[in-house]
Amino acid sequence: MTRTFRTAPLAAVLAVLLVSPAYAQPAPSAEAARDWPQVEPDRPWIYRGSDVPPDPEWQFGELSNGLRYAVRFNEVPQEQLSIRVRIDAGSLHERDGERGFAHLLEHLLFRESRYLKEGETIPKWENLGATFGSDTNAETTPTHTVYKLDVPDMNPTKLDETFKLLSGMVEGPTLTEKGVRTEVPIVLAEMRERGGAGKRVADATRETYFNGMKLAVRSPIGTVETLNAANQQNVRAFYNRWYRPENTVITVAGDVAPAVMVQMLEKYFGGWKGKGAWTPAPDFGDPVPGANAKAAAGALAPVDKLTVLDEPDLPISINYAILRPWEKVADTIEYNEGLLTNQLSMAIINRRLENRARAGGSYLAAQVGQDDVSRSTDATFVSITPLGDDWKGALTDVRAVISDALANPPGEDEIAREFAEFENAFRVGVETQEVQQAADLANNVVQAVDIRETVAAPDTVLKVLSGMRGKVTPDAILSHTRALFTGPVLRGVMTVPQASMADEAAFRAAMVAPVQADASARVQAKAISFADLPSLGTPGTVSEAVPTGILEVERLTLSNGTKLLIWPNDAEPGRVSVRVRFGDGYEAFGKDDAPYIALGEFALMGTGIGPLSQDDLDQVSNGRKMGLDFSIEDGEFVMGAETRAADLEDQLYLFAAKLATPRWDANPVLRAKAALEMGYDTYSTSPNGVMQRDLEYILRGKDPRFATPTPAALKAADMAGFRKVWEPILASGALEVEIFGDVPRADAIAAVNKTFGALAPRSATTPKADLSKVPAPTAEPIFLTHRGDANQAAAVIGWPTGGGRQGIQVSRQLEILSQIFNNRLFDAMRERLGASYAPNVGSRWPLDRSDGGMILAMAQLQPEAVPAFFEESKKIAADLATTPPTAEEVSRVTEPLRQLIMRASSGNGFWLRELAGSAGDPSRLSAVPTILDDYSKTTPEAMQMLAQTFLANDRSFEVAIVPEEQGQ
């Protein structure tokens, strides 16, 4: 059944709730059935042993060879088929000498197979319209390996070809010695690219939490020693042991009749037979306390293994977990009621922790969550990011909040608040179930099988929650909270920038020290309603309404000058997308404003609105579908939200009131300031971090507005300066409102008139001088340094192109050229330079500036390979300018782009992006009708001409990010 709030922050979970994993408890047939009880054979295999009502949209079945499947008709997007092949084998199934083999096999299946020769797999899928990396991909985890394929523009011929090729990959990979020897360096490169401080912390955390269990020493990436020892024989042995129909579940969702899907499965997978005897899964182990485990005061689990890491470039962090053995469950309605009660319990604690942090607590952030990890442990996790160096105070404060939750039941109002959030999220799921993506539905079943629980339709999930009303009492929450913090073992990891700050003994002493339960963080309910908020003024009226000529989109002008772009449609039932554009974006800032730009991105929406503080905003929107997203673009500021018709007017009120009556609470800014200061040094831990910190600044010709603010610059920033920068920005500039989605036209217009139409006319803005310029050509690379692993580097090379809306069609054709370049560089880098999937080429073309566009190629690699990367990139650029690409190269790019646009254009997000700003500037509409042709129709000669125009190597610039000791 769909599990709800797991370990992510509340807001983040709500955003992805209805595409989060669903879980299942299957009963495999044939040999694999030894692991599972065969009960209720008349029920679909995924529901055996459960009283959860089957989702009628899914058809579950089994082939005679033991392969299980789930198929479902779905038209979102139309003519697409999403296929997932799950093999019940991951890194936990590897023997000691096989570590990394499950992931290596994932690579090898894409390399060569029964129907695809070496080097043909990716081009073949691309010619079928599937983009590698997004439509064609795979994943290896500790418990499974999954092959993912989303094929657009499905027809009978392509359907047959798709299943044929996929079956050849899964049943008949060509596992040659040459293939193994070629792919191992690529996997080792992937390991290298994931290195650095982050990997060290992740490895230490895994080894600490899961000490004594296979999970502690079974990272899917493997080890250098075992990968270098891989050969055709031992890799094939791993394949033969685990790749068999009894261990396979294939999920298919899409715009094809389910009976036809089943026919394809029987045709291409029905004859598959495993080699040798079936092998049961190994024992993954249980969390068992060690000899040093010691009971903590007031804790419900003995403190066992603790690790303290010294990482100079990382801020202090504290994480600990209470671990319990994982057990297979009967996934019943009662069981799911228990899960939901657990999640409600943690949501209450998390809101209290957030409340304490907002009020100026000793920590920047803290959170609790529960997860069933890799069928190895059922664990409750606690994470803390202290403010400053007083980690003991932060740990004590968080433990005190948790201690209160363990000692005393919550208030009825706290329960009601979180229940309303859950109910709203589930109701949104019901309202929007018609637009669930086929890919998401297929992924849900895969992850369901992985955790051995069931899947449920959205209305079933809502019904289960509704049936809990009255059962979720304060005492029930208290009981579940105590169970979540009870277990045989507690383990933790702390990271400090200096070894003198903490050691294992100090960490242990702080964990076992007594704490006083702190009830001060309990959230007090307030009677806040939109009906009680002050009016924004006299509602406006519509003075002009004209069709755009694009679909049924209209341009309206209100009596106060506000522009409105509106498109009522039911393409996405239950969803309404809102965007508000105003001001000059980056052009509104001066050269000294970088700290306030960064702080505004993080904190501006949190500083409050009129009489509403950040906490009040949470309260007034409780149980509603509302948001306050904010972004800064080159020429405008954008507020956005995904809402629904019933909440649209109040959503618009929040946006309009933010502009008309902004509030200037200091705590959100101070908190953002602390977070930015603490995180600054982490950029230095890897080439990717340095790129994130400095690349945009360099690409903008060292425009100071795009510099990542240093801790010193942030310390100098204050609330007075923040308000001085942002107050005039919110108060000026023409307004454009865009509303696309499932709302009646009259209701949407009335809501805009009452909110934005009621605002006083706004003053014009005066953009400041543009400080950006195109990077100058470089005779030698610009060298940046990092403090990560000595075998890590990154390289970037760019060629200036252009900018402006008058060249928008050129920009679209440049995207095709960039992807052709990308395919060539991908092949060259993987085979010649030992990179994994890091090489990437892309085009950027700013529409609000006359220059600043560029084609960029970048990669992560070894330091000694940086010169070769630049050499290879320039060679490709010169060759594209000298000789037209082949027609096959062009079609490999244009067909996936065409399919991508066709799929995307069925949703409101696509049209919001393409029509952005046209309410105030209707000339932007002129390029819309040619989108599809611009991205999907071209010739080799046209590509050559673009390469001759823009890929001149004497205009290129280079950036290299190398270890400090190698920097120049």
UniProtKB/TrEMBL annotation:
<dbReference type="GO" id="GO:0008237">
    <property type="term" value="F:metallopeptidase activity"/>
</dbReference>
<keyword id="KW-0645">Protease</keyword>
<protein>
    <submittedName>
        <fullName>Peptidase M16</fullName>
    </submittedName>
</protein>
<dbReference type="Pfam" id="PF05193">
    <property type="entry name" value="Peptidase_M16_C"/>
</dbReference>
<dbReference type="InterPro" id="IPR011249">
    <property type="entry name" value="Metalloenz_LuxS/M16"/>
</dbReference>
<dbReference type="GO" id="GO:0046872">
    <property type="term" value="F:metal ion binding"/>
</dbReference>
<keyword id="KW-0378">Hydrolase</keyword>
<dbReference type="InterPro" id="IPR011765">
    <property type="entry name" value="Pept_M16_N"/>
</dbReference>
<dbReference type="Pfam" id="PF00675">
    <property type="entry name" value="Peptidase_M16"/>
</dbReference>
<dbReference type="InterPro" id="IPR007863">
    <property type="entry name" value="Peptidase_M16_C"/>
</dbReference>
<keyword id="KW-0482">Metalloprotease</keyword>
<dbReference type="GO" id="GO:0006508">
    <property type="term" value="P:proteolysis"/>
</dbReference>
<feature type="domain" description="Peptidase M16 N-terminal">
    <location>
        <begin position="76"/>
        <end position="193"/>
    </location>
</feature>
<feature type="domain" description="Peptidase M16 C-terminal">
    <location>
        <begin position="231"/>
        <end position="282"/>
    </location>
</feature>
<comment type="similarity">
    <text>Belongs to the peptidase M16 family.</text>
</comment>
<dbReference type="InterPro" id="IPR050626">
    <property type="entry name" value="Peptidase_M16"/>
</dbReference>
<feature type="domain" description="Peptidase M16 C-terminal">
    <location>
        <begin position="736"/>
        <end position="893"/>
    </location>
</feature>
<keyword id="KW-0862">Zinc</keyword>
